[in-house]
Here is the input.
Amino acid sequence: MIGIRRILLSFFLVVLGAAIWPLTSLAATDPGLGSAGNYAVLAAATITNTGPSWITGQLALSPGTSVTGFPPGTVGHEDIANGAALNARNAATNAYNVAAGEPPNSILSSDLGGKTLVPGVYKYTSSGGLTGTVTLDGGGSSTGVWIFQFGSTLTTATSSRVVLINGAQPCDVFWQVGSSATIGAATTFVGTILANTSITMVTGATLNGRALAGLIAPSGALTLDTNRIIQASGCGFGVPGYVAPAAGTVLPATLGVPSELVSEVPWLLLIAVGSGIAAVTLGIRSRRRRRSNA
Here is the structure.
C-alpha cells in the first residue's frame, strides 16, 4: 500500500512539474538599465536629427561630442561627453549584455507581424523584422518582461505597430539588437532598443521607450527624422520632465497609438511629405512673383 502511494505521489509530482514548467520557463528578467534608464536617447559617436522631432526625456552621448538638429527638434537635458553620459552608456552596455545572455524560450524565424506574445525571451539567430502589428499580452499582470534578441538587424516596415494589452508595460519591453535597428516610417514602436551599433528612426516613427545605440561599437550613431519619443516611466524610473513640443510639429503629445496612425495609414509621413511639397511650391511661386515684378 505504501509502495502504491509513493508511486502515485511520484506520478503527481511529475505531472505537476510538467504543468508548471511551461509557465516558469517563459519567465524573463529585467536586464537592469541602471542610470541609462534616465535617458530617452543615447549613442556613442553621434546623434543627428532632421525636422521637428519631439523627445520627452534626456539625451546622452559618450565618447562622441556631435549632437545636431536641436533645434529644430526639442529634447530634455543633454549630457555630452561627460561623466554622467559615460556612466549611462556603461550601464546600457551592461543591460545589452545581460539581455543578450538570457536563455530564449522561443527561436523565431518568421516575421513578428500578426503574433500575440506572452512575457518571455524570443530570439532571432540572425535578422528579424516586424510588418503589421505584434501584440504583447501581459495576461492581467503588470510585471511580465519581454526580451527580443536579434543576432544582427531589426527592421520594421512602414506603419508597423507594437501593441500592449492586459497590463503589459513599455518599461518591461527590451529589444537587444546585434548590429543595427531601423524603425520604419510612421511605425508605432514600444520598449527600450539596445543596439550594438546604430539606430535609425525614419520619418514619422514614434517610440514609447528608449533608443540606446552604440553600446558595443564606438562608432554607433542615432539618426532621427521628425520623430516622437517619450522616455518610458515605471520600473523604478519616474515620469520624465516636461519638454515643449518642437515648432510646427504634427506629432502626438502622448503615445499609445497616435491618432495620426489609426488604421495603420502613415499619416505622419504623408503630413511631413506634404509640408515639404508645400514649402517648395511656395518658394517657386515667390521666385516667379519676384521675376514678374522686376
Notes: The chain has one domain: 38-273. The radius of gyration is 22 Å. Residues 267-293 form the longest helix (27 residues). The mean pLDDT is 85.
